[in-house]
Structures are given as C-alpha cells and as structure tokens.
Amino acid sequence: MALLEARGIGKSFGALRALEAVDVTVAANSFHGLIGPNGSGKSTFLKALAGAHLPDQGKIVFAGVDITTLSPAERARLGLSLKFQITAVLPELSVYDNVLLALQAHQSAWTLLRSRSKHALHEQVMAALERFRLADRGDDLAVELSHGQQQWLEIAIALTSRPKLLLLDEPTGGMSPEERRVTGALLRPIRAWCALLIVEHDLDFIKDICDRLTVLDQGRVLDDGTVGQIEHSARVQQVYTTRV
C-alpha cells in the first residue's frame, strides 16, 4: 500500500533545473533509501516533500491527500516529519527539555496554561530518551552530547508527533562506524508504525536498513528497485564509478 506518491516532480532555481520528472513511491511501514552523487537533487526532493520548496511541476499525495501546495505545518499535521542534515536541537537546554518541548508543541494551549503538561508527559519523554539510548543523559545540556548523540536526540524529537513517515537527510553524517551501526539498530523498531525515507551517502548503512532504493542523478531518477536490483544495476554502477 502506497503511503507517499510523488509523480513528475520538477523544481528549478533560476536557470538551474534541480529536479526533473521525479517519481518516487514509499510504501507504508517501509524503509526507502534515496541515493545518488552530490548535487543529484536528493535534499531538494526531500524539501519538496516536506514543503520547504514547492515543486514547479508534479503532484505529491500523502496518506491519500494531495499535499503538493500545503504548508509544512499542514503536512506535519497529516503525519509527515523531517529531520534535516544539520542538527537543530536547542543546545543550551537539557536533553530532557528538548524532548519535552517537542511533545508540548503538540498539546493545546489550555493544557499548557494549566502547567500540568510536564508531569503528564514525563513517561513519554523518558520513553523517547530510552528508545535512543539517552535516558542517562536527560539532565545534561544538549551541547554536551557527542555529534552522534545529538543526531539521535533530533530523531527522537522528530518522532514525538508519531508521524506516519519520517524524512531523514544524511542522519549518519560525521558519525563513527560504531555510531552508524547503532543508528541503524535504533531506527529499525520504528518500522512497526512509521515509514522512513532516508537520504544517505553511506551505502553500506542504507543497504542494511532499506527495503527499496531510488537512485537520482542530475535531478532525474536513474533507477529504482530492491537493494539487490540496485546493486546489480549497470547504470547505477557506472554513475558511482565515474561521478561519486
């Protein structure tokens, strides 16, 4: 069952054609990878899905709703969540409060005014921290976390809204091999309730966790298929041999 269908997506920035007729389908509860050389349009495509860039052409349907022209906030309310490549945690707040504020953002103003939300949300905060191996760092400032731990914190924050689809833009960038391995292990359980569309340069990482891959090159879809099909694609091998 298709959760996300992007058809004929095009996007220009002045004279630069960043995306041209891009088709991507993400199934519910699947992990879908988006790969390609630098400048192939991967991050631009994610931003088009999230509403940060509105496409010039094409149509995006998410959970049965045409979201092509909806705002990022409207898309988020439908169950779409995005984590950008650069971490956006609040460094001078504690790890605990970063997650708490994210959860409070989904609460009504009345609940917040009654000042009871922190107590009511405590178990949810701790569950999110435990899921990403941060429970023992709750009182520490976010700035004190390692780069990998800050990435895990931001993923935990992105999941506080219980999205149907999480978009991740290079989540393992700058991580050690061990942190990349742990990141894969931490992401796998969310498949039970959340699909994943992930942009990543670490091919070993993305092949290990994804069901299907779409390969972009110069703003177009070069190939699409299972991990095995993409591994044996002559077109993909040529691009990664000559341009990466």
Cα-based radius of gyration, to the nearest Å: 18 Å
Q: Gap between N and C termini, in Å?
A: 33 Å
How would you sum up the major sheet? 6 strands, mixed
What is the spatial order of strands in the main beta sheet? Answer: 6-7-8-3-9-10
Strand content: 25-35%
What is the H level of CATH, i.e. the homologous superfamily of the largest domain? P-loop containing nucleotide triphosphate hydrolases
Structural domain count: 2
SSE string: EEEHEEHEHHHHEHEHEEHH
Question: Which class do the helix and strand fractions yield?
Answer: alpha/beta
Strands, count:
10
Q: Regarding CATH, which class of the largest domain? A: Alpha Beta
Global shape: globular
Count of runs of 4 or more consecutive helical residues: 10
Please name the CATH architecture of the largest domain.
Answer: 3-Layer(aba) Sandwich
> Mean of the pLDDT scores?
90
Low-confidence stretches: none
Helix amount: 25-40%
Q: At the third CATH level, what is the topology name of the largest domain? A: Rossmann fold
